[in-house]
Amino acid sequence: MEKYLIVNADDFGIHSAVNHAVYKAFHEGFLTSTSIIAGGKAFEEAVDLAKKMPGIGIGVHLTLVGSIPGVMPAEEIPSLTWEDGVLCQNYMKLILRDLQGKIELDDVYREWDAQIQKVLSTGLSITHVDGHQHMHMWSRFTPIAIELCKKYDIPCMRVSDENFFFGFNGKNMIRSFAGTGLSLMSRLHRPMLKKNGIKTNDHFYGMLYGGHFSEERMYHVVTRIPEGVTEFMCHPANNEKSMEDTFHWGYHGEWELKALLSHKIKDIVKEKHIKLISYRELNQLGVIDED
Fold first, then answer.
1. How confident is the prediction along the chain (291 residues), in pLDDT tens digits per residue?
2. Are 146 and 185 in contact (CB under 8 A)?
3. pTM assigned to the model
4. Burial bucket for residue 191 (CB in 10 Å: 0-12, 13-18, 19+)
5. Closest CA to 162 of 95, 236, 217, 241
6. Measuring CA to CA, which residue among 141, 125, 158, 103 is closest to residue 57?
């Protein structure tokens, strides 16, 4: 069986530092795909740059968190915008509110629907969907993401099921346990995706190393890529300080950009006969997970 690799940059459109890193990594590196945040403040710039990247896969980064404005007016999706009229800060707050029965699924549907429509209105072709902080894999929300994929004929969706405890070093215990729980939940969604004819990746890396997927770490994973379709989730930026001043994530986007430009990694990809693709090619291959 062949080895395929999708290299996707998340958060396209959230900040100019991300946009220009994506552009550089596509043209000078081995980035094959990106996912755009419709409510991002740098959305229009991202669209302009996307049109200068022929062949790149463009996904919709379905967003319910991140203190980002929704595409819908805040008063029309009140269960999602209780924090100063923007989407809530992080997935933990959103999940807790949902477990308390305070999230209206119709708000989720209408906001995600508006996000997809906004991307389509630019003339961009959507290859897949994924989620900011992986909320498209939260069990209450996944059926909505599937319904919208079918509505708009979006053929593919990321499954965020990183190998259990991949990258665990004892210093990131809380993040590792959270990632393991999300990975298990994501894995359980595979039969539902297959039943609905939505194609996806077989393997996934970049959750525990989110914002810290350095050249050394990426090289280590590339040398051990399994057969099938693997996705690397990346968060490149060309100005870490500007990103940190805005979002306070503690990410090292410049590390990740360096990795995506690495000749060492490009050489090992070639040496191991790994085929670089986007979700567009995955759909054309007709590869569907068989687990």
1. 899 999 999 999 999 999 999 999 999 999 999 999 999 999 999 999 999 999 999 999 999 999 999 999 999 999 999 999 999 999 999 999 999 999 999 999 999 999 999 999 999 999 999 999 999 999 999 999 999 999 999 999 999 998 755 555 555 555 555 556 788 889 999 999 999 999 999 999 998 888 999 999 999 999 999 999 999 999 999 999 999 999 999 999 999 999 999 999 999 999 999 999 999 999 998 544 444
2. no
3. 0.93
4. exposed
5. 217
6. 125
How far CA 272 is from CA of 7, 162, 216, 238, 275, in Å, comes to 16, 22, 17, 29, 9
Q: Which residues pair with 65 in a beta bridge?
A: 88
Q: Where are the beta strands (DSSP E) in 112-185?
A: 128-131, 156-157
The sign of the torsion formed by the CA atoms of 209, 94, 120, 44 equals negative
CA-nearest of 187, 196, 105, 98 to 150 is 196
